[in-house]
């Protein structure tokens, strides 16, 4: 058993009592540079790099080995080979999108435009709105189609209206101009200005990200007549025809932002057809750019990489190639990845960790002093219904319908989109597949799915520094234990808590208990609203946007500490390298968030990311935890001190 904490990585210049984040990560922050092809870099990203290298080795081995036509391995090899065939890609230039652009040129009226939106969406071109299929949030044993706002090319609606992003808007118009010129489209500069005006109109109808988090506001179930009434003048029959989707698919739907759809339908009627055709041509060029010749790729990166995130260099071609294979054949790769990189012992240890975290939550809920007995029992019922998924799916996706060609990158990707669309449409009318995963096994992440009431931990994240079979329990509970607790916590955050144990939006709270809960969450919002990242002076964390993740962090770490104590079964943990078990636990949490971020990326994330910046995910959470203050003997006057009456404890 190893300590898991490298004491040489602790800073002598800063005490944990004054600032835990630089104490735990100071030397790393001083010595590491953000890789040139990244906008942000830290523990998560380093582990993602490792997983990416592992997947690359698998892909290249598959290419070299040769496999029968039609086999999954051959499809992996074909797709990767087609992306790495730069000679063919350069020779083709913009030719792969010629037929899509011709479709737009042939549009004669609004009906044709609506049909083209459907046709192109089936080919991977993003539309005015997004659609997907998932379990019905109020009838979670049935699938339903969801509709969501779309139509913009900047990261968020705020980019079109806030003064902070004025320079980015100017750069965006110049970027669109250059891309349209590369595609050989007429009046590129004028078209770019008109596209910006149109997208600004579309963005004005968008809900902001705080409103869009609300699971009750965004659940609006309509039948076909209700959809027609919501979107006057929009010919849904033409859209269905273009997309090749049966009319039965939209007999019952959920619209997330109803007034956006009314506004978008109005814009389709009021804005000239030629301007919409320019916009749709731009969507084609924009979405295809990463798959086209070098001139397109470089210009796309110049704006979406350098300007928006600050990353100075484009990712190496093999990395982008692996990403394309991941998006089309993710579980085919995952099957190979798990066989090489996820031992059975890791899954067994994770089962034990999850069980302890669930038991810790049960104990904490049982002891809550602010929640009444009826709501408490329903919370315990929901906790008891949680389904953990660890490592990889029990049932793998079938990719037999995908046809690949090592000399046809664009065709491979287009066919992949069509196969996945058909896979999703086939769900309608079928029982909900509770074995399905929303992430591949090689992904370095985790998630909670409220409609399934499940917590999912792919094999990719179950490695150091988050999970180490040979490390001391304190370190594992401070890292992967807190991640497990975080995902369980999403079931009880401000939005997840609106779902019951069966995965349905259902108000299982008394009014008094919900008010007591919101009194605590309001205090958490206020704590985060004043936080200002060093990279973005004058810009603050949006406490309402990040509330769900902040609740997850606070509950996750608090419960992970209880679970760590349970794992000790009354034994006193050893002191290792001069650190107590509790100290190693909190230092492990801090190490997990060691991160450096470019200013441009920090600003982008403040606008759109529901997660707080890494240094605050570390420090702002522990300040609220009594055991942290006790562990490091923090007293009034220390930088990490938070008065007991100001500490927020929810779960």
Q: What would you say the CATH architecture of the largest domain is?
A: 3-Layer(aba) Sandwich
Question: How large is the radius of gyration?
Answer: 25 Å
Largest sheet: 4 strands, mixed
Number of helices: 24
How many strand segments? 9
- Percent helix, as a range, is 40-55%
CATH class of the largest domain: Alpha Beta
Give unreliable regions as ranges. Answer: none
Total tally of structural domains:
2
Structural class: alpha/beta
What's the CATH superfamily of the largest domain, by name? Collagenase (Catalytic Domain)
Shape: globular
Strand order of the largest sheet: 2-3-5-4
User: Which percent range describes the beta-strand content?
Assistant: 5-15%
Q: Distance between the terminal alpha carbons, to the nearest Å?
A: 31 Å
CATH topology of the largest domain: Collagenase (Catalytic Domain)
Key traits:
alpha/beta, Collagenase (Catalytic Domain), Neutral endopeptidase, domain 2, 4-stranded mixed beta sheet, 3-stranded mixed beta sheet, 24 helices, 9 strands, hydrolase, Peptidase_M13_dom_2
């Amino acid at each position: 058993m190893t300590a898991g904490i490298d004491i040489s990585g602790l800073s002598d210049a800063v005490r944990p009592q004054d600032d835990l984040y630089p104490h735990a990560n100071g030397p790393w922050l001083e010595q590491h540079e953000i890789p040139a092809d990244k906008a942000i870099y830290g523990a998560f990203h380093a582990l993602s790099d490792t997983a990416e290298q592992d997947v690359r080795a698998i892909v290249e081995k598959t290419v070299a080995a040769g496999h029968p036509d039609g086999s999954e391995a051959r499809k992996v090899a074909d797709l990767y080979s087609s992306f790495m065939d730069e000679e063919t890609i350069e020779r083709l230039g913009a030719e792969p999108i010629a037929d899509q652009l011709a479709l737009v040129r042939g549009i004669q009226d609004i009906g044709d435009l609506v049909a083209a939106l459907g046709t192109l969406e089936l080919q991977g071109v993003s539309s005015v709105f997004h659609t997907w299929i998932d379990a019905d949030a109020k009838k979670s044993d049935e699938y339903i189609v969801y509709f969501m706002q779309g139509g913009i090319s900047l990261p968020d609606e705020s980019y079109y209206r806030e003064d902070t992003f004025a320079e980015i808007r100017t750069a965006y118009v110049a970027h669109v101009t250059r891309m349209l010129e590369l595609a050989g489209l007429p009046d590129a500069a004028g078209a770019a200005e008109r596209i910006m005006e149109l997208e600004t109109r579309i963005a004005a109808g968008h809900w902001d990200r705080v409103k869009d988090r609300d699971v009750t506001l965004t659940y609006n179930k309509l039948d076909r007549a209700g959809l027609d009434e919501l979107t006057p003048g929009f010919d849904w029959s033409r859209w269905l025809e273009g997309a090749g989707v049966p009319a039965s698919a939209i007999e019952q739907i959920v619209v997330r932002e109803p007034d956006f759809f009314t506004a978008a339908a109005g814009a389709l009627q009021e804005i000239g057809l030629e301007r919409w055709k320019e916009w749709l041509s731009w969507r084609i060029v924009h979405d295809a750019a990463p798959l086209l010749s070098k001139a397109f790729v470089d210009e796309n990166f110049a704006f979406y990489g350098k300007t928006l995130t600050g990353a100075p260099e484009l990712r190496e071609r093999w990395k982008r190639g692996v990403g394309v294979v991941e998006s089309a054949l993710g579980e085919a790769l995952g099957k190979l990845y798990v066989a090489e990189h996820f031992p059975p012992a890791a899954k067994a240890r994770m089962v034990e960790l999850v069980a302890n975290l669930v038991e810790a939550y049960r104990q904490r809920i049982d002891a809550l002093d602010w929640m009444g007995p009826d709501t408490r029992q329903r919370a315990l019922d929901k906790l008891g219904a949680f389904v953990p998924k660890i490592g990889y799916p029990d049932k793998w996706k079938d990719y037999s319908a995908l046809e690949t060609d090592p000399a046809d990158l664009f065709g491979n990707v287009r066919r992949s989109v069509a196969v996945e669309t058909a896979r999703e449409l086939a769900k309608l009318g079928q029982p909900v597949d509770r074995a399905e995963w929303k992430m591949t096994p090689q992904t370095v992440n985790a998630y909670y799915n409220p409609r399934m009431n499940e917590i999912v931990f792919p094999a990719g994240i179950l490695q150091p520094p988050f999970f180490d079979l040979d490390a001391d329990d304190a370190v594992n509970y401070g890292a992967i234990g807190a991640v497990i607790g975080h995902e369980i916590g999403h079931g009880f955050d401000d939005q997840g808590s609106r779902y019951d144990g069966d995965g349905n939006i259902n108000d299982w709270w008394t009014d008094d208990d919900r008010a007591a809960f919101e009194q605590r969450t309001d205090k958490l919002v206020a704590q985060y609203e004043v936080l200002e990242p060093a990279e973005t002076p004058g810009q603050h964390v949006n406490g309402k946007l990040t509330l769900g993740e902040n609740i997850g962090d606070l509950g996750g770490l608090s419960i992970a500490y209880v679970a760590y104590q349970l794992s000790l079964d009354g034994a006193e943990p050893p002191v290792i390298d001069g650190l107590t078990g509790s100290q190693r636990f909190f230092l492990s949490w801090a190490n997990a968030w060691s991160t450096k971020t470019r200013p441009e990326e920090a600003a982008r994330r403040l606008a759109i990311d529901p997660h707080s910046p890494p240094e605050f995910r570390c420090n702002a959470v522990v300040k609220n935890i009594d055991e942290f203050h006790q562990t490091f003997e923090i007293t009034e006057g220390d930088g990490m001190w938070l008065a007991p009456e100001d500490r927020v404890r929810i779960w």
